[in-house]
Amino acid sequence: MLNNKNILRKSLFIALLLVFPSLKSQAQTVVNSLKELLPYLKQSNVKVVLKPGVYTITAQDIKNGDFSDSSIVKNHANVLFLFSGNNSIYDFTDVTINVKTAVLSAFPSKNEELYEIQIIGNKNVLKNLTIADVGSVNDAPTRRATNIVMDGASNRIEGFHITTKGSYPYGYGEVFGKGGKSVINHRKHSSFLVRGYKNHAKNCTIIHRSYGHAMFMQAADWPLIEGCYIEGVMRSTDDMLTEKGTGSDADKVDFKTAFDYKLPTGYMLCLGEEGIRAYNGGETVIDGVQYRRGTSNPTVINCTIKNMRAGVTLTHATGKKYVSGTTAIGCQRGFCIGTGDIVDSYADTQYGPALGVDYPNDEGMNAEITLLPYKGKSYNGSGHAAIIIGKNHKIILRNAIENADQNLKINLGGDNKTIGLLGKDENYSASNIVLHNFTNYPVVLDDNSKNNTGVSVGEVTDEGETNHILELHKSEK
Question: Quick one: which of 192, 166, 180 has its CA closest to 102?
């Protein structure tokens, strides 16, 4: 027999359920096929589990009309899985969806791009899916493709494992063009696009084997990228040049790059684009309303980016920019955020600088980066361990290297000398920067540097004016 206290508790619980229906637990629905799954993508307040197993989408499925949803964002896209409901949970634990690369060009409309997954609803959770492009790296989309696109608000994609494959041309990175002026017309395929408001990518893995970005943000406000692992592929320009006489795409244009000079030796390039990047434009849809805007207030925490064009580039975002606990390994450039904070992060210098700044009007970056050792040959054609321009930055470079390559410099001001800027006399300025260099990489202050201060374990060469960077004596090191 219930006592009075238990009766009171039960009554209160029932009353709360009546007042707050959202407290009721969602009934779990198990579906046994992709066809059964599709109707639930439009529903709200559902909890759906796809039966564990391997599912495959082929070009014939597209011709049969089995996957025919269209994105409602301007510049329509064909979408395999369009999640348009709200407050729903989709559990794909132990599920693999293989997308044959022939699907990338299978839709009858040749002017639309392809999204494999797009979310346009709000407060949804998608978790633990393995989705892989299966086929040739050269099976390019008709126009452009992206595996995952997040619109809407307060959605979370967690625990995804994404393998991206299929673009044209593949094998050269950015040197023959990336949009606008191109020597070879590109059909890109990116992995993960974050848009919308307060969307969250968490603990996802991206194995990137295509020309395009691994993870990027457009029209995103307060996006959060957390705990993600991203891995691309590098190739040396020396190896690319061995294609001479083979009739390859590069050979057909006589290795003339989009930068108006012939492909040089001595650089290591990513065959994709950025690991994590923010753009200052784009379109998104939230609650059925389309917005055209830039990216603002991005946060990147506890991520690892390996063998990409850059680890984290947030230069073109606005508002609060924050990077923490993140590592860039074997990238053409580690970090570049323009303004904002980089905290407790790590990068090596094997294929490019650990830290860069894009524009001389960038100011107010606070960065704390530990420079990591690496195995094997250096292919850092830029000659920079870091290149810092602009003004009013505070930079701490910490040491995890016993014998830093003295041919690589920490430059304040001067010529960027990246693969796309060879031959240009930039001579960028650097002023009012505080640098604490606790590595033994040498520091070079360009003749266009002024009023910079700090300390350095590495040797200091000062060609500027009114700079005061104290070279620590060996007894102080």
Answer: 166
Look up the domain containing 238 and give its range: 26-332
% pLDDT > 90, the chain: 84
Specify if 341 maps to a domain.
Answer: no
Which amino acid does the sequence have at 328?
A
- Banded pLDDT at 40 (limits 50, 70, 90): very high
Looking at the structure of the chain, the number of domains it has is 1
State the sign of the Cα–Cα–Cα–Cα dihedral 281, 285, 286, 291: positive
pLDDT at 2: 44
What confidence tens digit (pLDDT) does each residue in 209-244 have? 999 999 999 999 999 999 999 999 999 999 999 999
Query: What CATH number is associated with residue 93?
Result: 2.160.20.10
Per-residue confidence (pLDDT) for residue 69, from 0 to 100: 82
**Which three-class secondary structure state does DSSP give residue 206?**
strand
Match 């003295």 to its residue by tokens: 406
DSSP-assigned states of every residue in 149-218 = EE-SBS-EEES-EEEEE--BS-SSTTTTBSSSSBSS--B-EEEEEEEEES-EEES-EEEEESSS-SEEEE
Q: How far apart, in whole angstroms, are the C-alpha atoms of residue 66 and residue 47?
A: 23
- Give the C-alpha separation, 79 to 470, whole Å: 58
